[in-house]
Fold these 4 entries.
Entry 1:
Amino acid sequence: MSQDTTETLTGSQIVVRLLERQGIRRIPGIPGGAILPFYDALSQSKLIEHVLTRHEQGAGFMAQGAARATGEVAVCLATSGPGATNLLTAIADAKLDSIPMVAITGQVATSLIGTDAFQEVDAYGLTIPITKHNFLVSSAQELLEVIPKAFRIAASGRPGPVLVDIPKDVQNERIEVTEWPEPGRRDPAAEADAESIAAAAAMINAAQRPILYLGGGVVHSGGSAEAVQLAEKASLPTVMTLMALGAMPVDHALSLGMLGMHGARCTNLALDECDLLIAVGARFDDRATGKVAAFCPGAKIIHIDIDRAELDKIKTAHVGIRGDVKEVLGRLLPQVKQDLRTAWLGRVGELKSTCPLQTPGADDPRTPYGLIRAVAECVDDEAVIATDVGQHQMWVAQAYPLRRPHQWLTSGGLGTMGFGLPAAIGAAMAQPERTVVCFTGDGSILMNIQELATAAEENANVKVVLMNNASLGLVFQQQTLFYGERIFSSKFKGVPDFLKIAEGFGWQTLDLDTASDPKAALQAAFAVRGPMFIHASIDRHEQVLPMVAPGAANKDMIGD
Amino acid sequence: MNSITKKHHDAGQAHAVLELDVNNHAGVMSHIVGLFSRRAYNVEGILCMPVGSGKTSRIWLTVNEDARLEQMIRQIEKLEDVLKVNRHGAAHEVFDRVGEFFR
């Protein structure tokens, strides 16, 4: 506690001050009755800027975009009732991808709770299963403890979302404050077990065909450099989950790119042959493993994770290490022998050359892979790459040259269509020096299209690249492949004029369909700062390949 | 053996008794039982009383002992308001003694 002079402050003023002390400088949200006292206090802050979004889900994903791009806890705001329910999807999304976020919601006055008051909803009860922890605050005094604690919980261990629900009377309650608590910071993780680390090193040193399997936890822990060093020292071919892309540059000689449902054939086949799988900050998600019993069938498993509940959850580890990934990798490094591993790297090289990722049309910007390559040529590694969810997301995950942790913002666990645009805006506002690209589809963009208004208002440096196939492409693909081509409810009968919509929202636009030189047009569009909406039509029969059928073994891929 | 536990012993389902020390405030029970209910994992018995000054409570749960129990315990241990979890066998007397109120 730091000494200060005594002040009489409302609960709202206390929260604003605590957020300022946390270092929060921007909060997206939407006001409403039950959060108005807080907005009144926020209006007086000289440090915090409010971003008025057009839907609370947009606010939730803008906070997520900032948190994912910076690795720091971000905050979003909503009123009670529909404000809170509109936040739920973004909160659940943050939970599944372990994103540190604090959501603050207004609640009806304490005396009205439980009476079905206007805009009353049990935000606390609703968010129990989708938050890391949540609070229903009962007094202004309690805020002094709850707010720093919310930040500490969101950032510590395995990060995640925390909800703080504050009744209106608590926001208005005046109390004397003489001392301010220290801002809530990430607790240092408990030191990992030395014996287990030694055992893991021995297993790596003894392995003939090891593979390093990186998950989102590597990015969250800041351990990407250590992961790359470990791979290089022990010559470990490395696969990444969707969440880990960027942890190792995809064009690194040891990188096998993304594993799983849409991984390259060489990647999944190498995993099938490995004798040791070193899982780091990864949780053996079904989209990564395919049929679990057939995943790395001949491999022993080392599993490193900060969350003990992830160890042995899906696959029993031969050595399970609970600890901070960065710390564990750092301690593992000196114990691992330098090894050229020529035979195994030779075998992996053979797989890479005989069955690499096929990217047909990569030189033609009027195809999915070609468009992604052409966009990548317009920016450098400092750019942030966000996506929505669907075919475009998988094409970008496969083909974009991601080279930097925190470069890649995508909804992995929950797979939320509508994530991309607000997440991109949140990242662009948190890191205004960067260009933020948002690859999206015509299905996804419509799910949070109202945030085009927010981006225009804030002049966010976001380049939307809409891959328009007038359908829900991944559904269309699955119906084509697995449901006897019975296409149902996946083709849109009416397709809006997205360019007119974007113009109407005040965006600059580019239609690649009519551009005579699409590459030059893209270069010109990216040279302009501020929001730019780029439209490209895609054939709806284009598929994301290879593909592992849901529930099938990863080695049984459809397509080359 | 009371009638409740007897029924389960007859069904051949082994039980475990969990002892949880938790912070005592509204919502803690909801966090804990939510972990079970969202996995369709039935909680057969619950006892809860404040301990000492009332700042903390002790919750006793009796649950079916199946393959998911270890994962359940790890999930419970992660809850912010759970201070300690002890796992006992079905032989623990706490539910037998309270059983007489359920005859």
Entry 2:
Amino acid sequence: MPKAVFPNRLLPYLLLSPQIAVTLVFFYWPAVQALWQSMLREDPFGLKTTFVGLQNFSNVLADPAWLNAAWTTVVFSVSTSVLSMGTALLLATAAEKVLTGKAFYRTLLIWPYAVAPAVAGLLWLFMFNPAMGTFAYMLRDAGLAWDPLLDGDQAMGLVVVAAAWKQISYNFLFFVAALQSIPRSLLEAAAIDGARSGKRFRTIVFPLIAPTSFFLLVVNTVYAFFDTFGIIDAVTAGGPARATETLVYKVYTDGFVNLDLGSSAAQSVILMAIVIALTAVQFRYVERRVHYG
Amino acid sequence: MAAIELQDVRKVYAGNVEAVKGVSLSIPDGAFAVLVGPSGCGKSTLLRMVAGLEAITSGTVSIGGRVVNDLEPAERDIAMVFQNYALYPHMTVRRNLEYGLRNRRTPAEEIARRVDEAARILDIAGLLDRRPGQLSGGQRQRVAMGRAIVREPAAFLFDEPLSNLDAKLRVAMRAEIRRLQRRLRTTSLYVTHDQLEAMTLADVLVVLNAGRIEQSGTPMELYERPASLFVATFIGSPAMNVIPHGAAVAAGLVPQGAPEATLGIRPEHMRLVEGLAASGDEAVVDLEVSGVEVVGAESYVTGRLGSSAVEISVRVPGHSRLEPGTPMRAAGGRAAFLRFDPQSGARISAVSGA
């Protein structure tokens, strides 16, 4: 890596300072606040604050509602990741085979990424709204008792599809890039070596895009954990009967709706620990990944 | 083992671009055929059509008497060595060699036997547990060849396999490929743009130009009796000297009013002469030295012919110390001059001793 040398010793720090300021104000300060808050208990009117140590954490971890949300999160994250990555990989391999209008298809497939989560949620909410959604009519005509407002599994299905749909574009981009980085001659050599297209995909393509797939798995899990708040809030608001209440959604309801700030802070600290653990796993893995060439 | 037959093979790409314009070629069983030509002449396309990686627009390709036009690459009983080796980076060398055999459900003992034998022949036994990323260019090249030979195919196809190696290794691998092919006697089709590689490897040398075969034959046939100006200048290094009709008349090489023809003569068929020491059956030209290339045991002196832009190289033994700008006189046996049709480029003169 070439070293850049600045003539002025102060200049590099000056150039970095806006980014550092933003990071400090919007990331570190809230994080520290959350850590501190998680060890306090406030009365409902915000008049008295007591230091309770790790009491909030033990309360949260023993709370059946929290455990339920944790399990919901696992189900939601795994389903969303699998659905969005599977669909994206399918589309990426298909897009590789398109001969004319490749760029056009790619642009269309990348578009949904630009849609804000809440808007994406609303879109799906309208399409599948039991009272007026076009797809709800179609599903009922097909003989399915479609009612995500009462049926928890259907509600979960709906948020998973909405959340996955938004993430497909991102995964698609990475998969397309990964597929393109596989030299054509490798697949030709495999074809001459007697591997048909299914076998080629299993034994050559898939192992070679494994680092990308793993990276996407982590990104998608983190996305499902944290960035799907808007979709869940717009589509189901955590209902029915907490069937779609994920951890991050519970942080919001406990803190901002129920105003139990101590518990909410403790929950977000736990979430922070989870994301740090996930990132650590990713970095370990990425560093050890197979090197090609 | 099998002969490869190409009959009027054509390749037309979308937009009516004709890459291969009717190639007929027959490579006898066990022969080493080399396709050579400038980039874009269709040689790689032709090879890929034989391999089954490119559809054949018309004509037939048969390997061992079997028309393979509609067969998958895997069903053609061929093995191919790619320019970038195309080794599977996530597999060990052993796995790379085994891959094609496993796909064909070869019994395990048979796989082990063939892999060990290939490893021994190519001297890569010590590398079997490594991955391609841990190998040098030359080692990867060997593994790529190993992957071809374990298959024991009817034919080997080589797509510029040496062009990623450095000059020294290229010469060594060239000799090795030749030795290996002699030993295995497997019909081979080899594509290269390097005429020296082509000359040294080929039993059958095929010169392609703009999608057509210019000439095919043994390397020395093509060297001594080129069918066209294109072959004459493409084969041989440094290239044959070409003297257009006008310049030849002006230099007194051909009499006024002689039928129009482009002259060609190889640098080694010319020599520097002092005064009028040339013998009667030699033609003499006066040149002005424009450059000297010393290659070691010999030098190539290039001189400008009269006032024309035509340059002529002359091979001189040893180290020539001629300075640019000095006049010199070169002589070449009249029989050594080849005459080509200025329009079509086809050779018109007979070759003495042919």
Entry 3:
Amino acid sequence: MIAIIKYNAGNTQSVAFALDRLGIHYKITDNTEEILSAEKVIFPGVGEASTAMKYLQDKNLDQLLPQLKQPVLGICLGMQLMCRFSEENSTKCLDIFDLTVKRFEATQTAKVPHTGWNNLTQTKGWLGPQFENTFVYFVHSYYVPVNPYTVAQTDYIVPFSAAMEKDNFFAAQFHPEKSAEVGEMVIKQFLKIKK
Amino acid sequence: MLTKRIIPCLDVKDGRTVKGINFKELRDAGDPVALGALYAQQGADELVFLDISATDEERKTFAELVKEIAAECTIPFTVGGGIKIIQDVERLLKAGADKVTINSSAVKNPDLINQLAREFGSQCIVLAIDARNVGDYWLVHTHGGKKETEKELFSWAREGELRGAGEILFTSMNHDGTKNGFAINALKELSKTVTVPIIASGGAGQMSHFVDVFKEGNADAALAASVFHFGEISLPDLKAYLRKNDVEVRD
């Protein structure tokens, strides 16, 4: 069974629908036992960092998530919350990745939030090389700089981490659940990961 | 490279897709769920569903419809129409919408933008602005273009951004329904005024209009309805045409 972490994330339903379309069995839950016993865990996220962290703290999920041993996929804000600290309202996060989430600075030609379809480059790790130059959907104002855990990059104002990997923790800044066929392939790729 | 977005817009009333020509005349263009899925398959980058229902009873139907759309739709979609309070947005996002547009209610109560951005994040709050060019000014209109306000397009867009809107959807009432092209000069000016992405709306008639709106108007996305609904422009043809004219789009 796949556990989708239940909290105030905006895209929970979209992630669930994406799994429905793939015929995957899942449960949306904040129950410790159910999360611990899940084969894989998806940690969605759309919203604001400090509000999301507060919600996780209220449910003790901030303690549980970093201790999980099965494959965990953080999506968008979920990926950012897996980092140590976010510049979004100076929020202390889960510290799974010892990284700081930074804010994009808009330029004359580049708007913030980074909204729309952009391509993945230097894809490796859990994504593998087949995602090189595929287009996926992004919408975010904060980003994780390129770092040793980066397994896919995207260029917008600066090159940033489009996907990451560390031990059993996997992450995507883009929205696989909203990225048409490519997104479905990304979800399948995560589901294929052997523990 | 971030690509330019093509967004078919579906006006919905009683569970059916309609398109208002200059906000008045309505023509039926099919089932919104099926039409949305078809557009996604043909390469639409996002979809917008606008609820143009007049009554509360019809609005309840729309929330149900959003759930059906979300179950089928593999690309992001925005919903709007008649959103007044925070609970309206919560219901639509929970049903599976990715973003919401607010228009009249934001003009009436600008603080709604702040509240929504704080609660759900700027990324899902699209400020829709309908404006008409009158002499030197672009006057903002509400209630589907029926009511003139004292607000002016550029200052209102800037205020909306500062209050937390994550995108601006600008419809030129002068251009909407004419099929003579987008409001290029106003869009160019708007692009200098705000730092959030701009969705251009109103006036699409030919494929060259989309090249102009991206290259001259500096829009980040272009929205159109009837040219897609009635098969005058096909999405794959439009994407190929844009690519040929050096506008980066997704395959």
Entry 4:
Amino acid sequence: MSDTSTNKMSVETEAQFGDFFALLKPRVMTLVVFTAFVGLLAAPVAVHPFVGFTAILFIALGGGASGALNMWYDADIDAIMRRTQKRPIPAGRVTPEEARAFGIALSGISVMMLGLAANWVAAGLLAFTIFFYVVIYTMWLKRWTPQNIVIGGAAGAFPPMIGWAVATGGVSIESVLMFALIFMWTPPHFWALALFMRNDYDDAKVPMLTVTHGRPSTRRHIWVYTVFLAATAIGVGFTSVGGVFYMAVAVVLNVLFLKGAYDIWRRDEAMSEADNFAVERKFFRLSLYYLFAHFVMILVEAGFDRFGIEVLS
Amino acid sequence: MSLIKEHDLHKRRWSRNLGLGLVLAAFVVIVFGLTVAKVTEGDVGRAIQGQINQ
């Protein structure tokens, strides 16, 4: 190989700024930012807007850091699966060592800055979230148990709790229920997708419930988790972050969601294949609106409280 | 011949260096903004002069 060709190759594979940004999983970060923002504003304690902005920024950065560490550890899986082959590490633009150093550095910066900007309870929760996602989920349970979706969902459920802790300096029933809302929502959301999307987790040897326990069992799991999810979502309505408008939206959405989960449970593969998984697809689409609408309604109720608007009193 | 020789590496890493520079500048602004918000409750002038809340 000549010097010219070596040089040409390194130009093509040189990591650009966007590659490091991609390591932070920006799409996941948008959910982190939104739910942390809702947790922060729903809290009964007002936070200086700049402190709140900084706190959300560093919560997002902490989430991004755990994404980078996940990509470092899972580079072997990412190289096998079509969906993830173009990520910076399997594509050869960022080395695994660079991603690891980047993730560890950003984890430290985000936790320290959140502690200094807000308080050390929030910082501790962020540190635990990063640890949970990287060590408990990515390194330990993801490749070992088909309940990996449930465990991974817990990591994604922490941001509203951290946002709440930024304002209040603690944990309460409201923040625990907001955590539980995302935690219970994640499994039915992903398992519905797994029913109609042929994914390549099999090739990467990541255990998925549809494969390890079969598709009828997955349908049953969706139904059971949705029942607990509905109880949690209605429960949120009885706390200080709920209200009449939240409850109205929650009741409608949970009735629809329960109906969808029940239909999925009662169907078999022949019925699903006959209509190209129409019910499962509809349930998955609804799940996206479901979570977004619940958190928007918590935000709406917080707005009423903040601006002293009395509703139906 | 110019004193500073532009190496190919400089061109290749331009986006990285620019991005990192902007991120560091933003970090400085954030830390200063936090100081203003937490120490002087939004009064930039007092923050620059080092006057804190009594």
